[in-house]
Amino acid sequence: MHSPPGATLPGAAMPIYEAIRDLPIVSPHGHCDPDWWAHDRAFPNPAALLIQPDHYVFRILYSQGVPLADLGIGPNGKDRDPREVFRLFARHWPLFLGTPSRIWLEHTFRQTLGIATPLGPDTADVIYDQIADLLTTPAFRPRALFDRFGISALATTDPATSDLADHAAIAASGWSGRIVPTFRPDDLLNPARQGHGAALDALADMTHRDVRDFADFLDALRNRRAAFRAAGATATDHDVPTLATAWLDRGQIETLHAGAVAGTLSAGDANAYYGHMLTEMAQMSAEDGLVMQIHAGSRRNTNRQLFDSVGPDMGADMPGPTDWVGGMGPLLNRVGNDPQLRIVLFTLDEGSYARELAPMAGHWPSLRIGPPWWFHDSPNGIRRYFDSVVETAGYHNLAGFNDDTRAFLSIPARHDLWRRGVALHLADQTDRGTLNTAETADIARLLAHDLAVDTYRLEAG
């Protein structure tokens, strides 16, 4: 399924791809910085643009003995010369052969940046200078690139206590690009997360509520959700390392909440508390219409030395098994039949696509299956995903595609790879007689664009 940027696809796949290749990009979940569009400043340098924000890139380099500080990452790397970072990356370019990062980066170099020179140690400085020169031009400012990429909507992911000032600045600027926030309350809901107490203090200050009281805490969360909705948000996002939703009686949850505020909960009690709060969030989503995203099964920050010295999100998060049926059971049995609720499920446990997620989405009206996530948004991962979910869940219970990236310039490349995967899958379906030509065209557009718009309720705005 691997095809280089601009390559033709075999047989019936090419006309399917050509029909969807240039559809607008919908990016309903990701981690780009809204500051880029609020202030529309030039990106600082090629290393900061292409290497340092992308854990797909630096984790491979780290695996081959390249210190993160040498890549300008972490407190010990803050003074690293970006040209030296790019040279180091170029010397290790062969490490990316066979990975989706190689495909994305080649697309970015060739299609987005117009770099025709092959990357290598001898060409690193030439290519660095070419990119650096481009970044000084108005055409490569964040807003101009957003428009050039054909992005119709992009969602950032923002802490629940964000003041959303960047989003307000975008709205006040008069620029037509649609950048919306996503409500991420993990720091408030999961007592096991670092910074939980500080997040509660920030919530109390922002909402003028005594969050030590459980009822006031829920009201404060509703207040922040309303602020996000007013800023254009259509979704929430929840990182769930161990999925175990719950519904506790009022006395139990109030006792656990007091322990969460005091920071005295055991690991088991913290997990029960978070499980209950996920169900509270689902109920609120049924009330206010925000789409709930659950990303489950990532074992975060497994390299403790790296976490202690550099911080989180340094490429050491690993997949783990997830019990979706049992883990979602209490939540779904409380609110999963509500037609107003929509939950998008993302897994790193690839085996659960056929085993649990496809049957669940093929039954519960509230559920949609998110696209292949993180380690699986690759050519073969996309193929396996369709083979695993379609026969049981159908196409309309899927969520389309999102790129889930911090690397802004990779967005067109990631969507192009997905659209190629869609074309290859549908060509195979057509060849086998499962779909006719008209059905194939309809499903191609759904998977490339329309399902994401519908799933994330992005029709208006």
Description of the molecule:
This protein folds into 2 domains: 13-43 and 141-455, TIM Barrel; 44-140, uronate isomerase, domain 2, chain A (Orthogonal Bundle). Helix content is 50%, strand content 8%. It has 20 helices and 11 strands. The strands form 4 sheets. A 4-stranded parallel sheet has the order 6-7-10-11, with helices on one face. It has a 3-stranded parallel sheet with strand order 1-2-4. It starts with 12 loop residues before the first helix and ends in a 6-residue tail after the last helix. The mean pLDDT is 96.
Sum this structure up briefly.
This protein has 461 residues and is α/β, with parallel strands linked by helices. It has helices spanning 13-20, 35-39, 46-50, 55-63, 82-91, 100-112, 124-135, 142-148, 165-173, 186-189, 196-207, 214-230, 250-262, 267-288, 304-309, 324-335, 352-361, 379-393, 411-431, 437-455; strands spanning 25-27, 151-155, 158-159, 179-180, 183-184, 235-240, 291-296, 298-299, 318-319, 343-347, 367-369.
